[in-house]
Amino acid sequence: MTEVHHQEAAARQATNAGDDAQPARVLAASVGHLLEDAERTHLGQLRQLRSRLQSAAFAWDNALLAHAVEVFLAASRELVFQPLRERCFWPRLTGATEAAARAFGRKYDEVLGAASRARHEFEMLSRDDRAHTSSARKLIVELDMEYRDLDREIDQGAEWLVELSYAIEKAQPLCALSARAMALSGRLKRARQASALARDITILGHNVLERRAVLLERVKIDLQGFDKVWLPRVANIRAKAADQRFPPPVLDKAREVHAELITRLELTSAACLALQMDEQAMARGLAMLRDCLEPGKPIAGSSAASRTRSGAG
Predict the structure, then answer these.
(1) Which end of the chain is more exposed for a tag (fewer CB within 10 A), N or C?
(2) pLDDT tens readout for residues 184-197
(3) Cβ atoms of 53 and 289 closer than 8 Å
């Protein structure tokens, strides 16, 4: 039996003995010792884990990849096939056919360049992804275990505070014990807030890691489709654009393949945005937890994940 449990038992014995003030004093001491222990161990651990997770989680930065995907998508949207369908005498006579072929070639080259940049950023991120993910996931698991242990201490402290409030009603004088109970309640509230923030950060952390894995898989599939399907189809159009020696069905198939590329890139762009939102929410949560763990800071009114859910709604 721990010291605080011995003190709780003493408080009950004092109550049974008819001492009105002693139970309140013992309970206040019990809650105080429990909070001191929680602040020294669990809150101290949360402080260390928060700092390490801040570094580990954001060492993996997908901003350059997200930008490359946007450039890839924008370049793909600007590549149009319709001018190549003009096969009548007048466009050939005025040189419009050659101009359309040159414009198509320029936009085609821009798509190739954008795809190359996206591939480079994908390879750079993929190279270190496993190490970063493993480190961040380990810290998230540790954070999850720590806040659960803290919750158990908080629940015990809250139970004793309820008993303390009943004991204070019977004790004389009331002022000193009431003031101490309020101070203990404030400390307990801060510990509970820290636990809630840590819980939300673990949820957001798992979401971030999952979205990162999804994003890398999407970009990988996009690039594979580009190499195996888009390039063979559209490169053929690029090579013959000047003399238009391709039948309409060939052009239509290339347009279809190109439209599929744009659709996939739009979904990948949406995945980048979803990841960015979760990363921002996680960063806010880590900042709120940092402030909560500093005694001089005011207690925040809401948790990071809660505000994210309300914003998403």
Answers:
(1) C
(2) 888 899 999 999 99
(3) no
Largest CA distance in the chain: 113
- Give the C-alpha separation, 114 to 219, whole Å: 13
Give which of 310, 10, 279, 59 is closest to 160, Cα–Cα: 10
Q: Would you state the structure tokens that stand for residue 156, as one six-digit string?
A: 């015990």
What pTM does this model have?
Answer: 0.78
CA distances from 287 to 113, 142, 276 (A): 39, 18, 16
CA 228/CA 247 separation, integer angstroms:
22
Q: Could you report the per-residue pLDDT of 141-166, keeping only the tens digit for each?
A: 999 999 999 999 999 888 888 888 88
Region of 120 (left: φ > 0; alpha: ψ -120 to 50; beta: rest) is alpha
CA distances from 84 to 112, 184, 242, 283 (A): 19, 77, 9, 49
